[in-house]
Amino acid sequence: MSKFLLRGALLIFNAKTVLTVPLVQIIDRAFGVLISLHQCGKADSVMPVITGEAAEAGDPSAKHRVLISTPLSCIACAIWVMPLDKIMGQPDDQSADHGGRGTAGVGRTASLCILPLLLVPAVAAKSTVYLIRHGEKPSDGGDGLNAQGLQRAQCLRNVFGGSSSYNIGYIMAMTPDSDGSRARPLATVQPLATDLGLTVDISCDRDDQKCVADAVDNYSGSRNILICWEHDALTDIVDELGNKDAPTYPDDSFNLIWTDPSPYSDITATTSENCPGLD
User: Measured on CA atoms in the order 73, 74, 79, 84, is the torsion positive or negative?
Assistant: First the structure.
């Protein structure tokens, strides 16, 4: 079967939107195709993707290879579109039989009824992290949540529940102390976790921001992450995740949601939980 040199487009998707539709530039039949994409975060290594039959890297008889020069964390799926009117050339049958080492006859035509969509394997997009403060606390400094805090914990079942757009698949709260202190974050998200069928990760101590960042990096699920913590440590967590200009959570607020999408370099939204009777 003859092989064709094509110009097309690579459609890159994350979980919600199309990120970019770049052109494919033919560089060399022997060494493949280079696709330049807009940067959407910190750079990762270039990822080779076979778009023809498998071949060893660097082998001059290799079929087309696509090099995706973009942060892999930005990609959930990709489709290489090869439109009929963008055929650049067709190798003769002899050169095609020799692994495409011949020179394509640019300008020659071909009759094709259908050009396939090639599904390109890609790394799933990294999860968005949502950060919240625990619910209201007793005015006398006692442990646990007060009546308003308990009300907020129930409210979060609706705010972040299964029918919400937050799509939470992993919940973290700081480790409670054995004496009952530092338990407010867990108490705040436990009703929600029960509804979602999740176990709250309480493996990270309040001041161990690296533990939190490592847990985020190691999460391999396709859904998003909710972190509930003491407010004065939230800034340090955001900083450890990659935002070196992290905001400060107000002392007098309990309702704010920080949205921190991958690559976690910026809080892109600060919204309210909008709990009735509280916010």
Answer: negative
Residue range 113-141, pLDDT digits in tens = 222 333 333 345 689 999 999 999 999 88
Q: Is the pTM for the entire model greater than 0.90?
A: no
Task: Tell me if 271 sits within 8 A of 265, measured CB to CB.
Answer: no
CB-based contacts of 268-275 (< 8 A; 24+ apart in sequence):
273/132, 273/152, 273/155, 273/156, 273/159, 274/159, 275/151, 275/152, 275/155, 275/156, 275/159
Spatial separation of the C-alpha atoms in residues 206 and 198, rounded to whole Å:
21
Neighbours of 109 (CB within 10 A): 9
Strand pairing report for 105-106 and 87-90: antiparallel
**3-class DSSP assignment, residue 151:** helix
- Quote the Cα angle for 114-118-124, to 5°: 155
Instruction: Go through the domains of the chain in sequence order and give each one's CATH number.
Output: 5-120 (no CATH), 129-272 (3.40.50.1240)
Residue 241's Cβ-count burial label (10 Å; 0-12, 13-18, 19+) is buried
